[in-house]
Recover the amino acids of this structure.
């Protein structure tokens, strides 16, 4: 069994389901901490700050700090910081997590002549916001999306994800966005930089073949498909990017790497 020196861990469907911790997840995180193996919780969530995500994990009994979390909002802000200077005007469709991360990087949130239009999940999305974003993009602003997730999981089932908003802005503006989150390589590259491990010694863990497993495949990183969420073992057999490893849950994976 190959020894991995770092882990990128999905959250919903891997660590927890709704408000419930998936059995074995807390023990696996504790093992990584005791073994001093670096890890990040890698999520396409752009609505919450890293502090909020960590607090939620702590409330579930998962050892977590804000520095252990890497969201699509953080990746978007860091990507933008590679291409634009602090003070650059940006138009944002999004919630607290995205707005906070962009502000932390020094960008000015405004609808007046923005250089960039950034679209993250926004549960107060309106026709007016769509109009402002589309006009700015048609006037030359660069279009960036935190992710293209089709669905947003909740305790009450699936709700429309950010992909719906991105599609609306894309149709209205006639432009396709630069997409940051999983399965795109951008978020993986930035997460690896934060984690401090090389791609070949890192494992991406997740339940979703189309985000987590495809993210690893697209970045040359081994993957572990856990059967605790979105995609089944049968799905994996028919998926173009077959996972490197598969396990019923993180308990099974912990037993394997400990034997």
């Amino acid at each position: 069994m190959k020894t991995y020196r770092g882990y990128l861990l999905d959250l919903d469907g891997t660590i927890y389901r709704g408000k419930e911790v998936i059995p074995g997840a807390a023990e696996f995180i504790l093992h990584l901490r005791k073994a001093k193996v670096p890890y990040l919780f890698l999520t396409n969530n752009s609505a919450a700050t890293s502090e909020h995500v960590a607090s939620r994990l702590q409330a579930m009994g998962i050892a977590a700090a804000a520095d252990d979390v890497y969201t699509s909002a953080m990746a978007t802000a860091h990507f933008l910081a590679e291409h634009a200077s602090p003070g650059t005007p940006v138009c944002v469709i999004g919630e607290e997590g995205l707005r906070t991360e962009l502000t932390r990087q020094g960008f000015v949130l405004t609808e007046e002549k923005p250089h960039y239009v950034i679209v993250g999940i926004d549960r107060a999305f309106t026709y007016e916001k769509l109009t402002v974003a589309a006009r700015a993009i048609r006037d030359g602003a660069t279009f960036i999306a935190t992710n293209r997730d089709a669905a947003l999981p909740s305790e009450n089932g699936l709700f429309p994800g950010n992909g719906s908003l991105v599609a609306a802005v894309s149709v209205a503006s006639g432009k396709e966005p630069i997409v940051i989150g999983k399965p795109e390589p951008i978020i993986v590259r930035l997460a690896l930089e934060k984690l401090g491990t090389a791609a070949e010694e890192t494992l991406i863990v997740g339940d979703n073949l189309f985000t987590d497993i495809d993210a690893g495949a697209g970045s040359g990183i081994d993957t572990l498909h856990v059967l605790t969420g979105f995609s089944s073992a049968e799905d994996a057999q028919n998926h173009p990017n077959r996972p490197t490893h598969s396990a019923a849950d993180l308990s099974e994976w912990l037993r394997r790497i400990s034997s």
